């Protein structure tokens, strides 16, 4: 996907962790059907050894590729995404103090790398609940089943050694600016990227365009209306109100804020607005 630079996730995490000193850095996430659990355990065991107490490992179920890409990854084309729960258990075992498997992850064995289950459907919610893991839902681009998934996760959650109560992280888009008109203008970059992706024309993030939403057909507008149901586009006061309402509606324990804004300075300003709104 030309607009997402996360193919070598562990490499990027190492770069960010190496350039910072206090923040946690995590994967959001590793699509486990595309990777050997042992390789992921060794990669993240290495990261945890280099940056102790700062690494999180988010795991997703989607294969995330077409058959040609799967073949290029040397993935077994008969592999089944529904084996995801077994792969999660295998990966968790590599990090345990006394692994049941004969093979050891080095580094990895005995390290405390928090696992998260990521999802955009009900399946991930069920896996996270069954294993007693924190659950992150991709409501920033696939919000349709968000409330149902949260309810299912909390209802079926089984306490684990690492987590006594359900813990939910939700994605939320913020396009904050000092005026509503400028915020709407900045948001058109993300709108273009999403319409292009859903139309089979994935692209890099494009510069903003005046009047973009008004130029779309009814079907494309409906796509954007759905994906932007978990978004705030506006002034600092509007962002604060939208975030407070979203947290009140969902009971989210944590938010993953994304601001797909073309101009870097404007993107930083949007993150500042979100941080100030939640401080």
From the structure above, extract its key features:
279 residues; 14% strand; 10 helices
What does this structure look like?
With 279 residues, the protein is of the alpha/beta class. Helices cover 44% and strands 14% of the residues. It is built from ten helices and seven strands. Strands 1, 2, 3, 4, 5, 6 and 7 form a seven-stranded parallel β-sheet that branches. Helix 2 packs parallel to helix 4. The radius of gyration is 19 Å and the shape is globular. It starts with 8 loop residues before the first helix and ends with a helix. 36% of the residues are buried. The model has no long low-confidence stretch (mean pLDDT 92).
SSE class: alpha/beta
β-strand number: 7
Strand content: 5-15%
Helical residue percent band: 40-55%
Cα(first) to Cα(last) distance is 34 Å
Whole-number radius of gyration? Answer: 19 Å
- Biggest sheet descriptor: 7 strands, parallel
Task: Report low-confidence residues grouped into runs of 5 or more.
Answer: none
The number of helical elements comes to 10
Gross morphology: globular
Order of helices and strands: HEHEHHEHEHEHHEHEH
Mean pLDDT: 92
